[in-house]
Design a protein that fits this description.
With 513 residues, the chain is of the alpha/beta class. It has helices spanning 14-23, 37-43, 81-89, 178-189, 198-213, 226-239, 257-269, 279-286, 292-313, 326-329, 352-355, 369-378, 383-386, 406-425, 478-491, and strands spanning 3-8, 27-32, 47-50, 76-79, 93-109, 124-137, 143-148, 151-158, 163-166, 218-221, 243-249, 273-277, 319-321, 331-334, 340-343, 359-361, 434-448, 451-464, 472-473, 495-500. It is built from 15 helices and 20 strands. Strands 2-1-3-4-9-8-7-5-6 form a nine-stranded mixed beta sheet, with helices on both faces. A five-stranded parallel beta sheet has the order 12-11-10-13-16, with helices on both faces. Bound molecules: xanthosine-5'-monophosphate. Residues 390, 392-394, 434, 468, 505, 509-511 line the site of xanthosine-5'-monophosphate.
Length: 513
């Protein structure tokens, strides 16, 4: 398989380079800039991309990659800091700019180049800049291939060595032809075929899982969400009944969800599922608890306890499957107080592996979320599951501020179901990152018919986002909100007022607790 190596110098958008490449069927991995020469050589890249980063090449301890990058005989593309570093390492000059340049710039192509193939010199192209330093003298063999008003070295090339550098960021959406430039680099210049598909991934992964697991048993905690469902399906394909899927019903799921998960596993996926109804226990433990953090803690601990007991009852297991995704395992490079590498790790069922002495198996840890969805599709899973909005582990408990009762859960489930139904009917579900109802611990006065009512307030939330880290409220049409409000007040007993949450994140969070 053709592979590209991305060396990360700490840019906020390094992951986007990988995503753009993967969208084109190019397999790539992101590693810290300090990756060793041995690793770089062993990786077997068909090309290397040096990412952007916040540092300056003038600094005494500025991050450098191994010179081996330029000894592999493969094409190299430097982006922003990567361009400056490449030019400096190969004998050119980089200086601080008088003006730091951020945002939109217009790129003018000055010379034919394999990198800019498809772009004409007769028109200008929008690119996105974010840099302080600039190249002022090119290394031997390099020439300028495109400029902007304030960046005479906006794109440079040494065509015979196949080294390219761009001062702007081709990986961001605001560089309108960035995907074309990256494709020129990976496919035309590096010669990658672009044959990384989820069908290939699946074929390659199944024997790997079988080899890792041998005759042992793998445990998978199923939540009904995309990641755990895809992992369960993949593992089941690989090892059949050596897989033990356990679904703990906390009683804090959306209306009809537990039933739907059981049905999907039984009827569509044909995977045996151990169903544990622990809703009474969760409700009992949460009785009278108001503090959001305590709620989360109680739910987490109770989940582990129930899960552990059930697994013991089922005869134990050797591995725990986790739906860890690629963004969770990329070693992120940070420059606060000097270069340092930290690894983020993801624990859906935190604390379990160590306590139960389980080995971890993470079959989709090389994939981005959109690739997990594509894999699910490849295995015949329906979009109604794969395109679902995220749902938090603590469930409705963090959407009922204050004390949780069965009555409140029932009310919220009804309002939430109706709200999502309307969103789907209006064709808005896929335009929204996440939408849900919240039941406030506040009663207000209303009038229905001729009678006074005194019931709860329901808040509606809907946000757009790309990763859940930042978010903005969804700008519904007023008629839509009016329709949902009217239906909830009329059809859900216990609610007599509906409000819409227009807070962005930050300063708000997506969930209310
Ligand atoms: P916040 O509320 O922090 O949420 O803006 C960001 C995203 O994370 C989800 N979320 C959780 N997911 N366990 C999860 O699996 C949790 O404890 C949890 N808390 C928040 C939230 O739904 C949103 O998508």
């Amino acid at each position: 398989m053709d592979k590209i190596l991305i060396l990360d110098f700490g840019s906020q958008v390094t992951q986007l380079i990988a995503r753009r490449l993967r969208e084109d069927g190019i397999y790539c991995e992101i590693h810290p800039f300090s990756w060793s020469e041995a690793n770089i050589r062993q990786y077997g890249a068909k090309g290397v991309i040096l990412s952007g980063g916040p540092a300056s090449v003038h600094l005494e301890h500025s991050p450098q990659s191994s010179p081996a990058v330029f000894q592999l005989g493969v094409p190299v593309l430097g982006i922003c800091y990567g361009q400056q570093l490449m030019c400096q390492q190969l004998g050119g000059k980089v200086e601080p700019s008088d003006a730091r340049e951020f945002g939109r710039a217009m790129l003018h192509v000055t010379k034919n180049s394999a990198l800019l193939n498809g772009l004409e010199s007769t028109q200008d192209y929008q690119v996105w800049m974010s840099h302080g330093d600039k190249v002022t003298q090119l290394p031997a063999g390099f020439e300028v291939i495109a400029t902007t008003t304030s960046a005479p070295f906006a794109a440079v090339a040494n065509e015979s060595k196949r080294y390219y550098g761009v001062q702007f960021h081709p990986e961001v959406a605001h560089t309108l032809d960035g995907a074309l430039m990256l494709r020129n680099f990976t496919k035309n210049i590096c010669g990658c075929k672009g044959d990384w598909t989820m069908t290939n991934f699946r074929q390659a992964t199944l024997p790997h899982i079988r080899q890792t697991v041998g005759k042992q048993r793998v445990l998978c905690a199923v939540s009904g969400g995309v990641d755990s469902s895809v992992v369960a399906k993949l593992l089941h394909e690989a090892i059949g009944d050596q897989l033990l899927c356990v679904f703990v019903d906390t009683g804090l799921l959306r209306a009809g969800e537990a039933e739907q998960v059981r049905k999907s596993f039984a009827e569509y996926y044909n995977i045996p599922l151990v169903y544990v109804d622990a809703s009474m226990l969760f409700l009992h433990r949460l009785d009278g608890v108001r503090d959001p953090e305590r709620k989360r803690k109680i739910i987490g601990e109770t989940f582990i306890e129930v899960f552990e007991q059930e697994v013991e009852r089922q005869g134990g297991a050797d591995f725990l499957a986790q739906g860890t995704l690629y963004p969770d395992v990329i070693e992120s490079v940070s420059f606060t107080g000097g270069p340092s590498a930290t690894i983020k790790s993801h624990h859906n069922v935190g604390g379990l592996p160590a306590r139960m002495k389980l080995k971890l198996i993470e079959p989709v840890r090389e994939l981005f979320k959109d690739e997990v969805r594509a894999l699910g599709r490849d295995m015949g899973m329906p979009d109604s599951l794969l395109m679902r909005h995220p749902f938090p582990g603590p469930g409705l408990a963090i959407r009922i501020p204050g004390e949780i009762t069965q009555e409140k859960i029932d009310i919220l489930q009804k309002a939430d179901r109706l709200y999502i139904e309307e969103i789907r009917a209006a064709g808005l579900y896929d335009k929204i990152w996440q939408a849900f109802a919240v039941l406030l611990p506040v009663k207000t006065v209303g009038v229905m018919g001729d009678a006074r009512t005194y019931e709860y307030v329901c808040a509606l939330r809907a946000v757009t986002s790309t990763d859940g880290m930042t978010a903005d409220y969804y700008p519904y049409e007023h008629e839509f909100l009016a329709r949902v409000s009217s239906r909830i007040v009329n059809e859900v007993r216990g609610i007599n007022r509906v409000v819409y949450d227009i807070t962005s994140k930050p300063p708000g969070t997506i969930e209310w607790e």
